[in-house]
Amino acid sequence: ETGVTQSPTHLIKTRGQQVTLRCSSQSGHNTVSWYQQALGQGPQFIFQYYREEENGRGNFPPRFSGLQFPNYSSELNVNALELDDSALYLCASSLDRVGEQFFGPGTRLTVL
Amino acid sequence: QKEVEQNSGPLSVPEGAIASLNCTYSDRGSQSFFWYRQYSGKSPELIMSIYSNGDKEDGRFTAQLNKASQYVSLLIRDSQPSDSATYLCAVKPLNTGTASKLTFGTGTRLQVTL
Less crowded by CB within 10 Å, the N or C end of chain A? Predict the structure, then answer.
């Protein structure tokens, strides 16, 4: 059974650029949730995708957007990057919307 | 008041001792509670989940939940140096069939000393 994978591992961007992060869910899981973890903080919920539909959103601006594909993999897109977007971006997959969430290794984004 | 509160630590315990990690939450409607372990530079790893009042044991780990006091704890028996990590408490509010987000505390850093 393959676990949750994310790509890329690290990314460096400059302010104003756009970035796309990718996540493959664990086999059999149809729900993906994205979190942002700043240094020294707990993960903050960005949004959740269930069967290709956004299924709830945290307190993040519209420049954070996402997609889920028919194979349940997912993308997180961030436009107009700001310095404060520098963080570890975590994807978690679950069996369904209410199941336990298992995290991927994360993507560390640095915005200069 | 923060939604999920944890003492940031570090909590230092000698090898072989019991480590006790605590978490309080503000949403009385919360239904599901989780403990994640996060090593430095790595992603969170789920180690325990608990849904009803009382104790739940899994190997050296015991999760304790008291919904009346809005309190959840994690005990680690026979602590090992490999247990040194940050422990994140996560709470899921009452599920209404829509998004089930996890709300995390800032984590407690545990140091197990030789």
Answer: N
Whether residue B77 has pLDDT greater than 90? yes
% helix / strand / coil in chain A, to the nearest 5? 5, 50, 45
Query: Which residues 6+ apart lie within 8 Å of B77 measured at CB?
Result: B18, B60, B61, B62
Before B10, cis peptide (omega within 30)?
A: yes
Residues of A near B (Cβ–Cβ under 8 Å) read 33, 35, 40-45, 47-48, 55-58, 88, 90, 92, 94, 97-98, 100-106
pLDDT at B99: 60
Contact assessment for residue B88 and residue A42, using Cβ atoms and an 8 Å cutoff: yes
Residues 19-38 of B with CB under 8 A from A: 32, 34, 36
